[in-house]
Amino acid sequence: MLQSALMNVMVKAARRAGRSLKRDLGEIENLQVSLKGPANFVSLADKRAEEMLLADLTKARPGYGFIGEEGGVRIGDDKTHTWIVDPLDGTTNFLHGIPQFAISIGLQREGTLIAGVIYNPANDELYTAERGKGAFLNDQRLRVAGRRQLGDCVIACGLPHIGRGDHELSRREMTEIQNRVAGLRRFGAASLDMAFVAAGRLDGYWERNLQPWDMAAGQIIVREAGGTVSGIEGNDDALKSGNVVCGNEYIHAELVKILKPLGK
Ligand code: IPD
Ligand code: CA
Ligand code: CA
Ligand code: CA
User: Fold this and answer.
1) Strand 72-74 to strand 78-89: parallel, antiparallel, or no bridges (unpaired)?
2) What per-residue confidence (pLDDT) applies to 1?
């Protein structure tokens, strides 16, 4: 796979921040964990990784804007391009030593996602996509799974935790989906849930109350793997609404059909 200059920048930044996360994973007790809200943890690992990503991406593309979970918004001179970055997606997993977490870097040009990288340093899985060029896991081209019957499918979701989201709605959604699928999963890192859909490991995924950095890279990676991504109502508003559903076109449509009326 020939890597573009842009992808080179993104992959190098993700790998450097990934080495930092890996070091910190070995020293969880020294990471000065604090709470941004109930069960909303942030640690030195999140902050160090974000600092590196901001430094590397800004050095390579000085004018681009940057939105990172821990640093908020930075406005660049080039108003057309914006990085959307989660330096550590799956902080709760990370702080428990569960190796399901990732760095997520999306790039938007004039409101359209044009590139994405999701990197799990724990197993060295690197997911990449550029608009029109396909999606990859390391060197391997990705394609979403082809199953068309929900009864054959493994679907993942996100679950609201203490202090966040509508727990009653979540229970209704889970019950409806659970009754129709081969398996329901909750892995705990939205970016990787989407990467798994792109890789055909999962047939579909939905979650509410996400932030743009949880799913920017995931969206382009799923789409470039031939999948469909939308808000839970079926509109192209996932980044704005924070609610996302994805899968191949058939499973995506099935999930929207079940989930949309429940949210009313
Ligand atoms: C979280 C993870 C998790 C999702 C949460 C997100 P963070 O991101 O993606 O899977 O359920 O809603 O906030 O805080 O670990 O970067
Ligand atoms: Ca967080
Ligand atoms: Ca996140
Ligand atoms: Ca995060």
Assistant:
1) unpaired
2) 65
Termini Cα distance of the chain: 45
Q: In the chain, where does DSSP find H-type helix? A: 5-25, 44-60, 91-95, 167-178, 190-198, 212-224, 238-241, 249-262
Provide the residue count of the chain: 264
**CA-to-CA dists, residue 26 to 45, 91, 96, 168, 175, angstroms:** 11, 14, 11, 37, 38
ipTM above 0.95, yes or no: yes
Structure token digits, residue 244: 């996302």
Which of 34, 41, 86, 89 has most ligand 1 atoms within 8 Å of CB, for mutation? 89
165: left (phi over 0), alpha (psi -120 to 50) or beta: left
Residue 83 has phi, psi (to 5 degrees) of -80, 140
- β-partners of residue 66 are 74, 83
* Ligand 1 touching residue 102 (CB < 6 A): no
Q: What is the pTM of this model?
A: 0.97
Architecture, CATH, for domain 5-141: 2-Layer Sandwich (3.30)
Residues annotated in the binding site, as ranges?
69, 86, 88-89, 214
Per-residue pLDDT, 161: 83
Instruction: Report the pLDDT value the prediction gives residue 29, as an integer from 0 to 100.
Output: 87
Among the four given CATH numbers 3.40.1260.20, 3.30.870.10, 3.20.20.10, 3.40.190.80, the one describing domain 150-262: 3.40.190.80
Say yes or no: CB of residue 46 within 6 Å of ligand 1.
no
158 lines ligand 1 (CB under 6 A): yes
Rounded-to-integer distance, Cα 181 and Cα 186, Å: 14
